User: Which sequence fits this backbone?
């Protein structure tokens, strides 16, 4: 019964999406205003069917209905309830089903938000989005059908992959990534609609920017949480290995970030229109490529838990979308020429253009290193791998250059900067950056690229804080407002500007954390018996004993450690090994002691219960937690920037506040 209901709902969603796509595109091209009501009905039906299918699968998982094929693959009576529910997205078929539900929610949200717009505008966009819905509904109904029947019905199942039920971040990280991935469908639909209509003015840009910022924010959160999950679960001490599936989420983030910067130039100077549209379309294409890499099984990755035959289907869809995108851009080429000059070589718009070129180069570098082994194997049959040394050598200098432009761009005015403006804008931030490098060298820190990163981070932080506080100081001085009111008014009257700078501060934190944690890590291994200890940096680690335990879905053995830090504080840590019935190898759980400026990271390598003894891996990672601590800045900044502006009278203090009565200084929305 469950399989029948689920299959019927998926087929209903497929029919609704197909009907809505045809009516939307035909009605938009022929300007049939009455078609909008029909398409809105199809969107609602698509939403109901996709949500219903997902709820049906959750019901099957919770009730342990092993007659359903997907439940027989990932379900288990011993699995805790929370991991039973989230196993919905733990394997191929369930993850595609979950994708369909998120897609339906996004399309419905867009339809509701723009239902009162002139009909032609949302019709074409909804038609394009529903066309994507047709593809994923087809996958769910056919090659990736989770509702197949199993006979005879097994009494129990193996449960989800052990790595996916070993940390609570599994509950949060994948949905955040999906909300980022799937959300790129909306800007894709808006861009396709604008190209089909041939109306590429400012009106569509504001909508496109806002609907890109939303999935960009989710994707940012998903990437950071994913690195945190890898750090807290996998036990190798790192958080980013340039894994193909990690790169799959990073690629659309890069192009979407470049789009958000390019959109500012488009809105302000009416140029970079081709850049802006190409980046929007490219972000969606890269999400499809990323889904292919994640769920087709073509890459052997710790993050990729599926092996399937849907790869060719994804490649065909990717090819179709690519061809359609190129054709639309080629046909509308005359409308994509710049309407105004770019500005001088020393201007904000030129800095953003260079920034986009760096983002494009970084995207190409990561894409090449990720895809080249697959292409090489396809043509020669020889399997090769491209590891972290390639990515670090090629990508890190580009990242540092982007960090530099994060400080340069906001300091420059639009149009042209005079030498006097350059001196005034750069003297103090550059001085602070140099001073930070000198202090670091005096403290004994070494590493050219790391010290350069610290100096540039200080430079960018000073510029960002100056640009954030400048309107506040003006309001306090000219309007006599108290500090809290001046901050509130400045932030709410220039949301994109203020939110962008908050995100920039988060990016600075990430750069500093990566540089410090990679350059100044200390490591040791030791085998201890009870009462014995070892020293690592300011920490003394002593083994007090071994402890065994069991949960419904696993057994475990932990090494109980007494840790003393440099200030005399005592901490109890217990890294352990978990034994799952499905897994032949134990799954480790590291123990982490996080402080303001470093992490003590301990893993249990082996143990001897008879001796007793424990072999341990130990690291000190400076400032690594700053990566996760940047999350509130990303979320808060994105929320501020995406929050709709209220229509109001002209502000008492303009968003662009003159610097010393000269060049205006407005901020970039990250």
Assistant:
């Amino acid at each position: 019964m469950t399989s029948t209901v689920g299959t019927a709902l998926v087929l209903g969603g497929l029919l609704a999406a197909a009907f809505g796509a045809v009516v939307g595109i035909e009605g938009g091209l022929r300007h049939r205003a009455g078609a909008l009501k029909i398409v809105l009905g199809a969107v609602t039906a698509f939403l109901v069917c996709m949500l219903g299918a997902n709820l049906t699968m959750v019901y099957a998982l919770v009730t342990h209905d092993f007659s359903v094929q997907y439940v027989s693959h990932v379900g288990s009576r011993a699995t805790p309830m929370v991991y039973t529910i989230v196993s919905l997205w733990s394997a191929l078929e369930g993850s595609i089903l979950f994708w369909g539900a998120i897609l339906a929610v996004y399309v419905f949200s867009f339809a509701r938000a723009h239902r009162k717009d002139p009909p032609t505008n949302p019709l074409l966009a909804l038609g394009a989005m529903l066309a994507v819905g047709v593809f994923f509904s087809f996958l769910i109904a056919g090659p990736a059908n989770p509702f197949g029947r199993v006979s005879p019905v097994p009494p129990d199942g193996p449960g989800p992959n052990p790595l996916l039920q070993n940390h609570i971040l599994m509950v949060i990280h994948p949905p955040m990534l999906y909300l980022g991935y799937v959300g790129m469908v909306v800007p894709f639909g808006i861009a396709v609609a604008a190209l089909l209509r041939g109306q590429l003015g400012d009106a569509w840009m504001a909508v496109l920017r806002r609907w890109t910022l939303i999935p960009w924010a989710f994707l940012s959160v998903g990437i950071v949480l994913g690195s945190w999950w890898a750090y807290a679960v996998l036990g190798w001490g790192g958080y980013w290995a340039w894994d193909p599936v990690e790169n799959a989420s990073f690629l659309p983030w890069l192009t979407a970030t470049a789009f958000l910067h390019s959109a500012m130039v488009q809105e302000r100077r009416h140029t970079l229109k081709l850049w802006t549209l190409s980046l929007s379309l490219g972000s969606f294409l890269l999400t499809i490529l990323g889904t292919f890499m994640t769920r087709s099984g073509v890459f052997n990755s710790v993050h990729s838990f599926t092996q399937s035959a849907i790869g060719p289907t994804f490649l065909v869809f990717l090819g179709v979308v690519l061809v359609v995108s190129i054709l639309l851009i080629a046909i509308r080429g005359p409308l994509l020429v710049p309407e105004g000059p770019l500005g001088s070589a020393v201007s904000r718009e030129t800095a953003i253009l260079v920034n986009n070129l760096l983002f494009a180069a970084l995207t190409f570098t990561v894409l090449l290193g990720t895809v080249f082994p697959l292409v090489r194997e396809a043509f020669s049959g020889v399997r090769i791998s491209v590891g972290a040394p390639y990515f670090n050598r090629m990508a890190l200098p580009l990242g540092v250059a982007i960090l530099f432009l994060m400080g340069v761009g906001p300091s420059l005015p639009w149009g042209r900067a005079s030498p006097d403006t350059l001196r005034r804008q750069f003297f103090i931030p550059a001085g602070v950056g140099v001073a930070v490098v000198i202090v670091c060298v005096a403290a004994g820190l070494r590493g050219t690229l790391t010290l350069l990163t610290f100096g540039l981070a200080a430079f960018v932080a000073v510029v960002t804080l100056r640009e954030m506080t400048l309107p506040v100081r003006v309001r306090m001085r000219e309007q006599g407002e108290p500090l809290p009111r001046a901050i509130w008014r400045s932030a709410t009257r220039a949301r994109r500007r203020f939110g962008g700078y908050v995100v920039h501060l988060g990016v600075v934190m990430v750069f500093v954390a990566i540089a410090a944690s990679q350059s100044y890590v200390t490591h040791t291994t030791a085998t201890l018996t009870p009462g014995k200890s070892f020293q690592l940096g300011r920490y003394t680690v002593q083994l007090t004993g071994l402890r065994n335990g069991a949960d419904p879905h696993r057994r475990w053995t932990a090494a109980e450690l007494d840790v003393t830090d440099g200030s005399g504080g005592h901490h109890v840590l217990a890294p352990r090994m978990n034994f799952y019935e499905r897994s032949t190898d134990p799954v480790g759980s590291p123990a982490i002691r996080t402080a303001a400026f470093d992490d003590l990271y301990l893993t249990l390598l082996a143990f001897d219960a008879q001796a007793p003894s424990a072999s341990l891996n130990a690291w000190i990672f400076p400032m690594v937690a700053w990566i996760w601590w940047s999350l509130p800045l990303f979320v808060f900044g994105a929320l501020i920037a995406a929050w709709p502006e209220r229509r109001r009278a002209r502000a008492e203090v303009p968003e662009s506040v003159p610097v010393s009565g000269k060049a205006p200084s407005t901020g970039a929305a990250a």
The longest helix spans residues 348-380.
